[in-house]
Amino acid sequence: MLRFYSKLAVVAVGFLTFACSLQDHVVPASPDVYVAGYSHSGNGQTARYWKNGQVVDLLSNPHAAVATSIAVSGSDVYVAGWDTDATFSSRAKFWKNGVTQSLFGPYTATVLSKVLLSGGDVYVAGSGGTDSGYYAIYWKNGSPVVMNDSRNGWARDMAIVNGDVYVTGNASGSKPDEGAIAKYWKNGSSVQLTSGPKQVYPNGIAVSGNDVHVVGTANGDNISRGGARYWKNGVETDLSPSTYYSNAEDVAVLGNDVYIVGNVGNEQSYYTAVIWKNGVPTPLPGGVSASAITIVGNDIYVSGTGLNGFTSIAKYWKNGVPVNLTDGMLSNFTTSIFVVNP
Asked: How confident is the model at residue 197 (pLDDT cuts 50, 70, 90)?
């Protein structure tokens, strides 16, 4: 009997060794990387996205067509964007798996900048109007929710945390010279970030704990330079305090670290894509602009654009390492990135 159990033990050890050997040689599945954007040629523009480098065209237009945001749930791919008609009036576009979706209510959607999935609900944010004007709006499952004090407004990004809906964008202020002031809204109620005649356009929002992070770009005027801005709980920081122009496009938070992406220019008006970590900029190799950021685990993904001569190249960076999506034969630009872990 002892000899029998000894043989069983040897077999068990051998099987365990074989199983461990197989496990050691299993290649981990790679994340799926989705990047939204558009191409530009002499024939117009094409709204499109890339999945792991393979392009999917959504809409071509001789005037303009842009995919501005992308989100994925299971096998469903949602893309927001816009195009223009022959008079160059913008028209909002929203696709699910390449099929145009409808938005309801009395407001005609003119542009969409964000699609967000939360708890089985689909949100898209942008701008919509009636005969009385246009407003910053998001649509939840196709139905509109209008932001307070958002006349002449545009909802440009949003986040949902613990059931609270945060939206950032711009709208007219209470004074005649306040044409585009920066705001964010929490559950529809506005928090004003700027005032005065300078036009400021928030582009991204992230919420971590009790902190609300907003980034955007201020236009210059005859008095002061425009450039990249960051607000934490309403307190403004100039990200690039130089004499040259800069942009802040998106923000993400990992632990105590705040990451912001955009670009900065120099005295020759050449631009470099950058990522700021806690206010310190680092160039992204081969990039002239960075459009969006997402963090999955400890990996940081940034979408952006590079150059091949005078032709723009769509690309993204994973932890600072560039991945080209196009070959530079045709100008392509990115706007958004979404990553799905296997």
From this structure: confident
